Amino acid sequence: MSQLVDSEETTPLLRDDASSDDSQDDDYKSRWRSIRVMYFTMFLSSVGFTIVITSLWPYLQKIDDSTNASFLGWVVAAYSLGQMVASPIFGLWSNYRPRREPLVCSIFINLSANIYYAYAYLPKTNNKFHILMSRAFVGFGAGNVAVVRSYVAGATSLKERTSAMANMSACQALGFILGPALQACLSFIGEYGFTVKFIDLQLNMYTAPALLAAAFGLINILLVLLVLREHRVDDHGRHIRAINYTSEDRVDISEETEETMDQVAVLTSNVLFFIVMFIFAVFETIATPLSMDMFAWTRKEAVLYNGIIICGIGFESILVFLVVKVASQRIGDRPVLLAGLAIIFCGFFILLPWGNHYPKIQWADLKNNSLVSQISEATKASNNSLEPTGCPYEQTWCQYTPAIHLAQYISSDILIGVGYPACNVMSYTLYSKILGPKPQGVYMGWLTASGSGARTLGPVFVSQVYTILGPRWAFSLICSMVLGAIILLSCAYHRLIAFSVRYGRTVE
Question: According to the UniProt record, where is the region Disordered (predicted)?
Fold first, then answer.
């Protein structure tokens, strides 16, 4: 048994923890095969979001001349809005029916929406709205994340859960990394590609990623139908019959109880998860405009350098998930969450502008030239190909706010790349433990919806505050929000405990 404990504390990324001596039992193997299908589903959910994200803007411009950057914001937000609406629906469905039903339905919606996206060029008018609707339906299909989280929470013991949740988050992070990479690999097809006449399909660098995501969806449906089985265990890893389990070949070890979950802890967990997702959405949104304003990068340089940074953060996140699995076993989930929030606070605090160095202003040389009024229209036209770099003079704060140094920016990225994944996995790991033995579909749906809402509101918030008031105000407000989350966690610290620990069934 001591060897078993040691193996749990050194679990590699996708190795599964054993909760009892009968680890070779068929039921145990079936349970972990099903959990791995959930890992793959989570991976594909994040791939479906990122695989078209870098080509979304040029695709919109190609098929609809009337589109603009403001509409792009709505298209990006449509995914999160669709997921926010769908999560509680699929979560409720999974509470009362076998989970393969909402999973197959949601994946089929996702698959169909990606095909819809690939054919969005066909209508004669309003093509941009077809893109908008297709992304909303892709997001709606991604509402199955709530089902995935509730399944893994119900199919693992307390000892296994942090490790399983960390594995799932690592698969999600891997999806965010590989999505843009797959898009880059498919770019060799070119902007025009070729036409498959009998299905009237233009296969090019814009449509191929969506069709690849649809193919992944088909594989996922087959795995869910052929491999996934209903499993539910108690906090000690003993099998019990789930409400949505239809077979009769299992002994029912009922744990029905009148004991209720701590609603304050549930609400606190939702608020903390919202804040964590909001902050990361702000970070994703602000990276490109901030780097272009502060370092005078061109659009191409900003996309390249930030792409490398985000890819690096993705790999860093996977390493953090490995560390989190060990750290949570040593010191507990709540200290890891608190440490993650403190690291995020440091990351944004570092970004506060200071010093006497100011950013380069776009076209400052022309604005300060007394002969600017004498520049001919022909000269202006010849300069149109020259991309302006630096901080736009329309943003008045550029003239009096110190520049952020590249060292500050890189240091902040590294710290946020450590703090965010730790907070992310600990937030819903704690949440699943607080909810207890009852089916968690609806509650996981609300958690996913709160995260989707944060990803919708975060970009809107930061674009407005940053554009009007500048980075000093934007990052000060974010620091205040993180500090509020730390205070909230500290106040509710004693209540954020597992359901079975609260009622004395197990020792923390």
Answer: 1-27
The 10 Å CB-count burial string (b at 16+, else e) for 265-303 is: bbebbbbbbbbbbbbbbbbbbbbbbbbbbbbbbeeeebe
Topology annotation, domain 27-239: Growth Hormone; Chain: A; (1.20.1250)
Structural tokens at position 391? 């901080």
Report yes or no: 426 and 344 within 8 Å, Cβ to Cβ. Answer: no
* Cα–Cα–Cα angle for 408, 413, 416, rounded to 5 degrees: 120
Q: Where in the chain is the domain with CATH 1.20.1250.20?
A: 27-239, 261-365+390-507
Asked whether the beta carbons of 52 and 131 are under 8 A apart, the reply is no
CA distance 347 to 408: 9
**Cα radius of gyration rounded to whole Å, the chain:** 25
Q: Does domain 261-365+390-507 have CATH number 3.60.140.10?
A: no
pLDDT per residue of the chain (508 residues) written in tens, 0 to 9: 444 444 434 444 444 444 444 444 777 888 889 999 999 998 988 887 778 876 777 788 788 877 766 677 678 778 888 888 898 899 889 888 888 899 999 999 999 999 999 998 888 888 889 999 999 999 899 888 888 888 888 888 878 887 888 788 788 878 877 887 787 778 788 777 788 877 888 888 888 889 999 999 999 999 999 998 888 877 676 777 655 554 434 434 344 445 677 888 889 989 999 999 898 878 877 777 888 888 888 766 776 787 778 778 878 888 888 888 888 888 888 999 999 999 999 999 999 998 788 888 876 444 444 434 443 443 344 444 466 788 887 788 888 888 889 999 999 999 998 998 889 888 878 888 888 777 666 787 888 788 888 887 877 777 778 878 888 998 999 999 999 999 999 999 998 887 777 766 555 5
Cα distances from 270 to residues 21, 103, 165, 451, 452, in angstroms, run 36, 23, 17, 8, 12
Please give the single-letter amino acid code of residue 452: S
User: pTM of the prediction?
Assistant: 0.71
Most distant CA pair in the chain, distance: 89
The conformational region for residue 296 under phi > 0 = left, psi -120 to 50 = alpha, else beta, is left
Give the DSSP per-residue string, 99-145: THHHHHHHHHHHHHHHHHHHTTTSSSS-HHHHHHHHHHHHHHHGGGH
User: H helices within 227-332, ranges in order?
Assistant: 263-295, 299-331
